[in-house]
Design goal:
Elements lengths: L21 E4 L6 H11 L4 E3 H9 L3 H8 L1 H18 L3 E3 L8 H6 L5 E5 L2 H8 L12 H19 L2 E4 L5 H11 L6
Parallel strand pairs: 1-3, 1-4, 2-3, 4-5
Helix pairs in contact: 1-8, 2-4, 3-4
The chain binds adenosine-5'-triphosphate (ATP), (3R,4S,5R)-3,4,5-trihydroxycyclohex-1-ENE-1-carboxylic acid and magnesium ion.
The site of (3R,4S,5R)-3,4,5-trihydroxycyclohex-1-ENE-1-carboxylic acid has 9 residues, from loops.
Amino acid sequence: MTAPNPAAGSGTADAPGGPPAVVLIGPPGAGKTTVGQLVAGLLATTYRDTDADIEAVAGKPIPEIFIDEGEPHFRELERAAVRDALAGHDGVLSLGGGAIMDEGTRGLLAGLPVIFLDVGLHDAVRRVGLDAPRPLLAVNPRQAWRELMDKRRPLYTEVARAVVATDGRTPQDVADAVLDALHLKDA
Ligand SMILES: Nc1ncnc2c1ncn2[C@@H]1O[C@H](COP(=O)(O)OP(=O)(O)OP(=O)(O)O)[C@@H](O)[C@H]1O
Ligand SMILES: O=C(O)C1=C[C@@H](O)[C@@H](O)[C@H](O)C1
Ligand SMILES: [Mg+2]
């Protein structure tokens, strides 16, 4: 675990029902869902995922939103979903892997307990095979994943209060490290 941006811990969110106790970001396969659910269990709170929220509102799967309306429209839906979730959820929240690409969404995260779950290509491939229906990784997934991480790593790091490495660690270990990073061990 490293602390790339201590200033990320300095604001507040004016949100009835929120803000979340933990916000998880990171690329596909980082373990946001797996670890997020474990962390929610450890904190005896609930888990929420903005990808699921977007699909529920749109009434269709994310790959179809990309095909029908394009990525810019998806990022707008995502910004709205993140805003709603930050205002209405005080448990553990996972964002979509690319949420941090949108400047407005990054702005919404200021001051919140955001954890970047980091993963390298090797473990990401082992975990998700990079063959699931992921709109941005459809062609040459390994190279696309590398290029995507080159662009995204600085942004994940910028908005995160801490980075938790996940390579070679069990989800339970990672969940523990998340609590540690946010000083929530005895919460
Ligand atoms: N630390 C870990 N070690 C080994 N396997 C893991 C770890 N974390 C998650 N996994 C496995 O990797 C796969 C992907 O994990 P998960 O769905 O939690 O990732 P995600 O970040 O939510 O991905 P997505 O962006 O697609 O929602 C799952 O099969 C999960 O069991
Ligand atoms: O990495 C990304 O850009 C994405 C990740 C998923 O969580 C979804 O939000 C969507 O498939 C886009
Ligand atoms: Mg997930």
